[in-house]
Amino acid sequence: MIPVVPTRKRPTIRDVAREAGVSYATVSRVLNGREWVSPEAVRSVRDAIARTGYTANPHARSLATGRSGSIAFLLTEPQHLLFSDPNFSVLLRRVAQALSDREQTLILMIAATPEERSRTFNYLSGGHVDGVLLVSPHSGDPLLGHLVRAEVPIVACGRVLGYEQVISSVAADDRSGGRSAAEHLLAAGCRKIAMITGPQDTSGGVDRLQGYTDALIAHGLDIEPARIVHGDWSRESGAAAMRILLDRAPDLDAVFVASDSMAAATLPVLREAGRRVPDDVRVVGFDDTGLAETLDPTLSTVHHPLDRIAEEMVRLLTDVVAGRTPLSITVPTTLVLRESSPAGTDAARPDFRWIGPEPT
Amino acid sequence: MIPVVPTRKRPTIRDVAREAGVSYATVSRVLNGREWVSPEAVRSVRDAIARTGYTANPHARSLATGRSGSIAFLLTEPQHLLFSDPNFSVLLRRVAQALSDREQTLILMIAATPEERSRTFNYLSGGHVDGVLLVSPHSGDPLLGHLVRAEVPIVACGRVLGYEQVISSVAADDRSGGRSAAEHLLAAGCRKIAMITGPQDTSGGVDRLQGYTDALIAHGLDIEPARIVHGDWSRESGAAAMRILLDRAPDLDAVFVASDSMAAATLPVLREAGRRVPDDVRVVGFDDTGLAETLDPTLSTVHHPLDRIAEEMVRLLTDVVAGRTPLSITVPTTLVLRESSPAGTDAARPDFRWIGPEPT
DNA sequence: CACGAAGCTGTAACCGGTCACAGGACGATA
DNA sequence: TATCGTCCTGTGACCGGTTACAGCTTCGTG
Q1: pLDDT (tens digit, 9 = 90+) per residue, B5-14?
Q2: Measured between CB atoms, which of B119, B127, B265 is closest to A100?
Q3: Is the dihedral of CA A49, A51, A56, A60 positive or negative?
């Protein structure tokens, strides 16, 4: 009897059991390697699996175990940032890798519009994923409060201001990073150092600024409000901020910019204004995710260790899912010097502890 | 045995049924809106759902229906391209949106290493997703053959050379795009037009080159092999290709580059070589995904309609999952003129049909 | 020799949905 | 009044796994 339509049913655990001459419970035990199973049984089950080409149905498994085996990577930034900011894609890549190593699947959710946000909330709070990785959270976001109330396991990239006690997070040591950038500029002789910050409702935005003020104050300098302009990570905001700075503080001799994207946008503005980089104005960015090397001049910047951050986020989320109390992890940053602010004599100065690689 | 996590029981369909005073089958009917249900029953079920905060368990649903409600977005490019090529992130964003609108979830899979590839194949062929969206497929990839043999529903972005009859695809009209770019350069008076192509095992790489040769031949010009260099979409390959061109064909008066990433990398090379853009050498790219506007000079380029491509891919995949025979869809491109090759007198010429927007 | 423990295996209940099918209520029609 | 069709609802089987529990060997020990 040849079936007209080749009904290609995928083999189930019971097919494997029949093939192996054992019960399906034994097959399950072999698959999960939990309990005592005789070596012969293990072998015949493995053979049967190989012969039938069996793979477990993840939905049946999730239904039985109550775990989904998947986590959500949640982006709440407006879409133009997703495109221009390499941080996202680098982090995404690393997280995907880390999850793949743990046999977990990565569900990408983008919640930019109000509709998407409410759909996203329903999905995440419905227990459809084991946990959520949150990127670049803004503390004012109501979605955060809802997720926390629904007790969804969350790990954020960057501390979530106001939620430090309830949301676990992994962040770069932004404050030290900002401080080392500013100290490098100070050591190079700059005294009128401006800063373009990130949004002040993100930990990265706040801490990098804090590091900058730390360094200036430690060197006995005043913080000049005119030299500080807030950006929103986007290129456009970087260019706009640079124009404001040139207007408000035309005597500046250096700019520390809280992201490479924004820093990249300052270069043409400076060039148009007739300022040479680094001779007239030194520029130091933050991130070092590939963009910095491709600019002209290449950009000195603080390396944002996204590899380790991704790794730690996944590890931490596993803990949080298992019921661990919230925890914040900080990962050290590294200053990388390139053409836009090369190493000067400062490398030899005893008061300057941090030393980056030689400029290329 | 105490469970590790205190599993807060979520309400099930039976809880809702009890609450509403109906059977669970009726609740299911209301949820799926399938069969005849009395208005009162609908109302009381909806009330009960609102009261209990019920959301359906997608795994139970998948198990019962045999559909997973999720599709995989599969990337097979080496990771450095994922970072530098904005095409990926733009497409990803759009696909995510289109899927979200259909209440489907997007599972991101990156198969760069051999391990990841085999894991990915097992996962996809195991029927864990309803279908696969494939980005930038290279025809030599063995993973493709395996997926086709396993009868996994696939829609690719770009035709898959050699698999046109078995893998559905959505592509830009790369050939017309390449042709309009070259025609624009010809109309601007250029006669020694070089080209940096994409990989010749991708339809985009082949077709954009084909469009270029179409235009040159139509104008009675010979195809000079010395003026054609193959790239691999990456910035590095663009810079390298430009150097080769300056060496092999130093008399060139224009370059058509098959991607904006590669085109971006040609600009510093040209500048270093003392060639002014566009005065000495005109440059036209391909993609128009944001990067082109941020370059200096801003880049004339062929707009790659990723919005529509994403939309069509999702639509087409739905059809393929439903059993539709393979189909290739082509979406038109548009030439966008900016500083690197502004519109000339050609716009007025009768033999030049295509006219882009005025340069900014 | 009786008995308990250890090692292994099978049965059955359960996870939370979908859906085929049986059947009840009720009005229309013969 | 009997019969039929339409509308609506409930029961129970099933999807493919996991796991509690019981049962069967086999062996060691008092």
Answers
A1: 334 567 888 9
A2: B119
A3: negative
Q: How far apart are CA B55 and CA B154, in angstroms?
A: 30
Report residue A227 as tokens: 């030299």
Q: Find where tokens 């809880």 sit.
A: B15
Q: Under the phi-then-psi rule, with left for phi > 0, alpha for psi from -120 to 50, and beta for the rest, what region is A341?
A: beta
- Identify the three-state secondary structure at position A313: helix
Contact A59 B70 (CB under 8 A): no
Give the tens place of pLDDT for each residue, A101-160.
888 899 999 888 888 888 888 888 877 899 999 987 787 888 899 899 888 999 999 999
Q: Answer whether B310's CB lies under 8 Å from B94's CB.
A: yes
CA distance A31 to A50: 13
- Residue given tokens 């803990």 in the structure block: A319
Q: DSSP strand E in chain B: where?
A: 70-75, 105-110, 131-135, 154-157, 168-172, 193-197, 228-230, 254-257, 282-287, 300-303, 328-331, 334-336
pTM of the model: 0.84
**Counting beta carbons within 10 angstroms of the beta carbon of residue B206, is it exposed (0 to 12), middle (13 to 18) or buried (19 or more)?**
buried
Single-letter code of the amino acid located at B186: L
At B154, list the tokens.
């696939």
B297 preceded by a cis bond (ω within 30 of 0): yes
Mean of the pLDDT values across residues B89-117? 87
CA nearest to A9 within chain B: B127
The greatest distance separating any two alpha carbons of chain A, rounded to the nearest whole angstrom, comes to: 92
CA–CA distance from A6 to each of A3, A257, A292, B125 (Å)? 6, 63, 56, 17
What is the pLDDT, as a whole number, of residue A225?
A: 97
Chain B residue whose CA is closest to A262? B294
- Convert the pLDDT of each residue in A158-195 to its tens digit: 999 889 999 999 999 999 999 999 999 999 999 999 99
Q: Which whole-number Å values give the CA distances from A149 to A142, A152, B77, in the listed order?
A: 11, 8, 39
Helices of type H across B168-298: 174-187, 203-218, 235-248, 260-272, 291-294
DSSP, residue by residue, A231-261: --SSHHHHHHHHHHHHHH-TT--EEEESSHH
The HSE-up count of residue B259 (CA atoms within 13 Å, CB side) is 28
Q: Measured CA to C1', what is the nucleotide nearest A10?
A: D16
Residue B285 has a CB neighbour count (10 Å cut-off) of 32
Q: Closest Cα partner for B5 from A181, A119, A321?
A: A321
Tell me, in Å, how far CA of B322 is from C1' of D7? 31
A357 contacts A336 by C-beta, under 8 angstroms: yes
Tokens of A272: 């148009």
- For residue B171, give the DSSP letter: E
User: For residue range A293-347, what is the model confidence (pLDDT) as tens digits?
Assistant: 888 899 999 999 999 999 999 999 999 988 888 999 999 999 999 999 999 754 4
Q: How far is CA B252 from CA A127, B241, B246, B281, in A?
A: 61, 13, 8, 7
Give the span between the Cα atoms of B126 and A343, in whole angstroms: 55
Chain B partners within 8 Å of A55 (Cβ): 122, 125-127
The share of chain A scoring above pLDDT 90, in percent, equals: 50
